[in-house]
Design goal:
With 226 residues, this protein is mostly helical. It has one domain. Helix content is 70%, strand content 0%. Helix 5 packs antiparallel against helix 7.
Length: 226
């Protein structure tokens, strides 16, 4: 995202700085709420590990992974520090891990839906003259657009079954024990695989296709009520 902003020749330096600050704010909000979603899901099912380690906090410093946050800032998809979970505290370990792992991406899809409501509402409004009200509405409109794409990117990306992403935890929870140990042998290569994927145009097009499909679905739902 930041690279696209910097490459935009139609923006002045001040406008680029403002867009980068909006992007940074979206990163902090999206990653923080994603991780709090994991922690709250685990807490609801009886595991207090995340709470005891301060991971139910809305302070972004408790959740941001430097590499994952930078990837989200630059590419529009990334990850945060994994929430500590003790599956032995769940009544059902496998279903507890699946639900806890899915809670993070789910919060992102919900945030994206809320932001898309803002996009639809502000996009359908007209303003009689330029001024503070127009500038504020334009700023909010931009913020909502960035929140939509960033949260969809974060939610979809984290469902990929590659460590340390949430999809890998879902997969490990449903795999038979023998397959699970074979799968975990490749865990140390997770970051390398993710970095390689980010540089493939096909992978980026796949993410864009999923984002466009979800936005279309959101718009259909919103139009029923707005």
């Amino acid at each position: 995202m930041v690279l696209n902003i910097l490459r935009n020749s139609g923006m002045g330096a001040g406008e680029k700085l403002l867009m980068i600050l909006i992007t940074l704010l979206c990163v902090l909000l999206s990653l923080t709420i994603h991780e709090v979603g994991h922690g709250l899901a685990a807490y609801a099912m009886g595991d207090r590990t995340a709470q005891s380690r301060g991971r139910l906090s809305l302070n972004p410093l408790h959740h941001i992974d430097p590499i994952g946050g930078l990837c989200l800032l630059i590419f529009g998809f990334g990850w945060a520090k994994p929430v500590p979970v003790n599956p032995y505290n769940f009544k059902n370990q496998k279903s507890g891990m699946v639900l806890t792992s899915l809670a993070g991406p789910l919060t992102n899809f919900i945030l994206a839906f809320i932001a898309e409501i803002g996009v639809c509402v502000l996009g359908g409004m007209t303003f009689r003259s330029a001024g503070f009200g127009f500038d504020l509405a334009s700023l909010l409109y931009t913020f909502f657009i960035y929140m939509v794409y960033m949260n969809l990117g974060l939610g979809i990306f984290n469902l990929i079954p590659i460590p340390p992403l949430d999809g890998s935890k879902v997969l490990s929870a449903v795999l038979p024990t023998d397959l699970y140990f074979k799968y975990m042998q490749y865990e140390r290569y997770g970051f390398i695989i993710l970095i390689l994927l980010m540089n493939f145009g096909v992978f980026n097009r796949f993410l864009s296709f999923c984002e466009s499909g979800l936005i279309g679905l959101y718009d259909m739902i919103i139009k029923l009520f707005v």
